[in-house]
Amino acid sequence: MAATNAAAATPPLESTSAPSEELAAKTVSKRYEGLVMVRTKAIKGKGAWYWAHLEPILVNNSDTGLPKAVKLRCSLCDAVFSASNPSRTASEHLKRGTCPNFASAPKPISSLPPSSSSISAPASATLSPTSHNHRKRASSSSSGGGNGTSAVIPPLAIVDPSRFTVDLAYPPPSTSLIVTSGGASPSGLYGHQQQLVLSGGKEDLGALAVLEDSVKRLKSPKASPSPALSKAQVDSALDSLADWVYECCGSVSFSSLDHPKFKAFLNQVGLPAISKPDFAGSRLDAKYEEVKSKCEAKIRDAMFFQIASDGWKPHDFTRDGNLVNLAVNLPNCTSVFRRAVFTTGYVHSNYAEEVLWDTITDICDSNVRQCVGVVSDKFKAKALANLESQHPWMVNLCCQYQGFTSLIKDLGKELVLFKNVANNCMKLAAFVNNKSQIRHSFQKFQLQEYGHAGLLRVPFDASDFWAVYALVEDILSSARALHLVLSDESYKIEEPIAREVAETMRNPHFWNELEAVHSLVKLIKTMAQDIETEKPRIGQCLPLWEELKLKVKDWCSKFNIMVAPVEKVIESRFKKNYHPAWAAAFILDPLYLIRDASGKYLPPFKCLSHEQEKDVDKLIMRLVSREEAHIALMELMKWRTEGLDPVYAQAVQLKQRDPSTGKMRIANPQSSRLVWEAHLTELKSLGKVAVRLIFLHATSSSGYKRNSSLLRWVSAHSHSRVGLDRAHKLMFISAHSKREFGDDSDDKENELFGLANGEDDVLNEVFVDTSSV
Fold first, then answer.
1. Cα separation of 228 and 579, whole Å?
2. How far apart are CA 381 and CA 650, in angstroms?
3. Distance CA 486, CA 503 (A)
4. Is 642 helix (H, G, I), strand (E, B) or coil?
5. The DUF7963 domain covers which part of the protein (predicted)?
6. CB neighbour class for 178 (10 Å; exposed up to 12, middle 13-18, buried from 19)
7. Is the whole model's pTM more than 0.70, yes or no?
C-alpha cells in the first residue's frame, strides 16, 4: 500500500520540478545577461575598471543542458571565480597580487633610469624560517617556501644605502628578513651593493618613489613645465571660480575651498590659495551689487510690473523651514528674482500681506502704482484681497497651478467614487501585506511577472489623498500578480476577510472604478504640469477651465460616471479661484478674438456668462480714474462692435511649432500687448487697462527651484544676521544666473541620476540571491 502511494506521488513531483528548474535557469540566464550588459558598459568607459579583466561565463547542467550557474573568468590567467561579488573578486585576485599576470603595483625605484652609483645590481634575499607571516606573504610569488626552511624571492627594491644620511633601520631578529650580499652584475657596470627589503612590503614602494623624486628635484631643480599665469589671468580664473561657487548656492560650501585636494588642484594649475573671507565677504558683496544693478535697471525700464510670490503654501521641507520666493514679472515676458524670505511653522496672512507690500515699496519707492498686481500660491486669499481693496489699481490673483492641484484634493474628499476606491484599496493592501502566506505568494508572482517585488504602499491616514493615490497606482501596476495570487494554492484561507477581498478583486466594477480614479487624477495632473511649464497669462484661465470641463465630461462617458457630482466639485473650485480679471483679460486680449460672418475679428463676449460680462465693466471702471470711467466704457463698446483689423488679428494669432515639444505655440507672445500700445491708439483709456491686464501671469512660480539641501543650509544660518544676509545674496546671484542663461542643471542632474538608478536596477537584478539554484 505504501509502495502504491509512493508511486502515485512520484509524477506530481517530477511535473513540478521541471518548472522550478526552468525558473532557476531563467534567473541564472537573466543574471548572466545583466553581467554582460554591465561589462559592456564598463569597457566603453562607463563602469568599473576591473571588467576589462573579468569575463562572465555561463555554466550549463550536464544532464539537462540548462544554465545552472554564472562564473567570472580572469582573462589574464584563466582562473574561474564565483560571480556573487565582482568587486571583491577584483580586489582579492587582481589588486592583492594573486593573479600572476596582473601588474598594478607602483614601479620600484630599480625600474627608474640609473643615476650615478644610485642603483645596485639585482640580488637575492632569503626568508628566515622563523618568519611565518613573511613566508605567507612571499608564498604567492616564490617557487618554494611552503614547507621548506627558506624561500628565494625577487627583490622589492634595490637602494644604495650611501644615498641616505641616516642609518637604515632593520626589523628585530625574530621577524627580520635576512639581507644577503649580491654578486656583481653581469655587465660589470655596478659595484657590489647591499640589497634593501622594505619592512612595509610592496605598500612602501609608492612612498619611496615620492622620496626619491623629492631628492632628485632638490639636487637638480627644473623650471616649471608651463609659464606662470599673469595677474589678469589669475584674476579672471578666480572670478569664474567665485561665480561658480555663488551660482551653486549652498551646494558648494565655503569650507570646501579649504579642502587639501582642492588646494592641490589650484596649485597644480598655477592659481594662488583662496581666501575664504574674501570669497564670502568683499568678493560676494561686489558680485551681488553687480547683479542687483542689472536687475534694477530692467525694472526701471519697465512701465509696470507684477509680483510673483510662491512658497506660502508649505512644501515637503517644512521640517527645515520654508523659503518664500518673490520675483518681478515684466511686460516683455521676462522675470527678475527679487528676494527670498525664510519662514518656519505657521505664517499668518497679515505677515504675508506685510512682506508683499514691503517688497513693492522697496522696488517702487514712492511710485507704488508701478506695481499693477500680485500672483501668489493660495496661502491666504485674505492677504491678496486686503492689498487689492486698499490699492484699487492692483489685480491680485491666486495661482492656477495650485487651483488645479487643490481640485484633485477636493475630488478625493467629496466624491463617493474616490471614497469607495480608497476603502477597497486599503482593505486589499492590508490583507496582502499582513498575511504572510499571501504576501509571499504576491511577491513570488511579482518577481515572475515584473522582475521585482515589494509591499503595497498603505497610507497611515485614509484622508491623505496623495498617499491613497500612490496605493491606487501600486494596485494597478500589480494587477496581474494579484490575480495570480487568487488562483494560487496558498489562497485557500477560510476567513471572512479573505473571501471579501477575493470577491472585490474578481469584481470588474472594482477595477473600473480604480481605473477611473487613476485616469481622472492623471488628466488633471497633466494639465497642472502644463500650466507650471508654460506659465499662461490670465486671459487663458477661462479657456483652461472650460477645457477641463469638456475633458471631464468625456471621462464620465468613458467610465459610466454621473456627470453632475463631478461638475459640482469643479464649479466650487472654479469659484474659489475665479477673479473678474480673468474675464476682462479674455475679452481684451486680441489672441482670443473670433472671426464672425462678416470677416471681422471681434472679442468673444458670447463665451461669457451674464455675471462675467458685468465683471468686465466693473473691473475696467476700477482700474481707471473716475474721470475716465465713462470714456473707457464707451471705448469698450467700440471694441466690442469693431474689434481689430483682420491682418493684425491674424498676425497676433500666428502660431508655430515648438521644435523641443512639437506643440503649436504663439509666434510672438508680446504681440497682444504691443497691438494696444502701437496700433489701437484711439482707444487710449481702454488701452491703459488692456496693456496691464494682458501681460499678467496666472501662476506664481518664481522659476527658482527649492531643494532640501539649500533649505537646510539657510536654516543653519537663520539665527545670524550676517549669515542670512550672505544667504540672500547667494540666492539672488544664483537665481539671476539661472534666469539669464536658462540653466536646467537640476533637470540634467535628475536625468543623470535617473540613468544611474537604472544601472543600479540592472545590478540589483544581476546580483539577486540565487542560493537555491
1. 65
2. 38
3. 10
4. helix
5. 20-102
6. middle
7. no
SS3 709: helix
Which residue, among 434, 468, 474, 435, has the nearest Cα to 452 in the 3D structure? 474
Which one-letter amino acid corresponds to residue 87?
S
- What SS3 state is found at 308? strand
Give residue 477's Cα distance to chain centre.
23
2 forms beta bridges with: none
Q: Secondary structure of 532-551 in the HEC alphabet?
A: HHHCCEHHHHHHHHHHHHHH
Sign of the CA dihedral with 522 first, then 524, 528, and 534 last: positive
Q: Are 28 and 69 in contact (CB under 8 A)?
A: yes
Q: Which three cell numbers stand for residue 710?
A: 539649500
Q: Within a 10 A sphere around the Cβ of 504, how many other Cβ atoms?
A: 16
Helices (H), 117-259: 132-138, 204-219, 231-248
Length of the chain: 773
3-state percent helix, strand, coil for the chain, nearest multiple of 5 = 60, 10, 30
Contact 674, 589 (CB under 8 A): no
Pair 400, 393: CB distance under 8 Å: no
The CA-based dihedral angle spanning residues 255, 256, 259, 265, taken in that order and rounded to the nearest 10 degrees: -140
- Amino acid at the residue 466: W
What does the DSSP assignment read for 656-704? EE-TTT--EEES-TTHHHHHHHHT-TT-HHHHHHHHHHHT-BS----S-
Stated as kind and residue range, the H or E segment containing 135 is helix 132-138
Nearest to 94 by CA among 85, 83, 82, 103: 103
Task: Measure CA 635 to chain center.
Answer: 51
Distance CA 158, CA 379 (A): 77
| Residues contacting 104, CB < 8 A, separation 6+ | 94, 95
- Candidates 501, 524, 505, 523; CA nearest to 514 is 505
Cα-based distances in Å from 314 to 74, 102, 649: 56, 57, 42
The cell for 735 is 537665481
One DSSP character per residue, 399-419 reads -HHHHHHHHHHHHHHH-HHHH
- Name the DSSP letter for residue 201: G
CA 12 to mean position of chain CA atoms = 51
Span 139-190, pLDDT tens digits:
443 334 444 433 443 443 434 444 443 333 334 443 333 333 334 334 443 3
Give tens-digit pLDDT for 343-380. 877 778 888 899 999 999 999 888 899 999 999 986 66
Q: Tell me the pLDDT tens digit for each residue of 554-603.
A: 999 999 999 999 999 999 999 999 999 999 999 999 999 999 999 999 99
Tell me phi and psi for residue 395, to 5 degrees.
-125, 110
Kind plus residue range of the DSSP H or E element containing 82? strand 80-82
Q: How many helices (H) and strands (E) does the chain have?
A: 28, 14
Do 459 and 470 contact (CB within 8 A), yes or no? Answer: yes
Question: Roughly how many angstroms between the first and final C-alpha of the chain, as a whole number?
Answer: 35
Place of cell 508649505: 314
**pLDDT reading at 255 higher than 60:** yes
Other C-beta atoms lying within 10 Å of the C-beta of residue 575: 8
C-alpha cell at 750: 535628475
Distance CA 49, CA 27 (A): 26
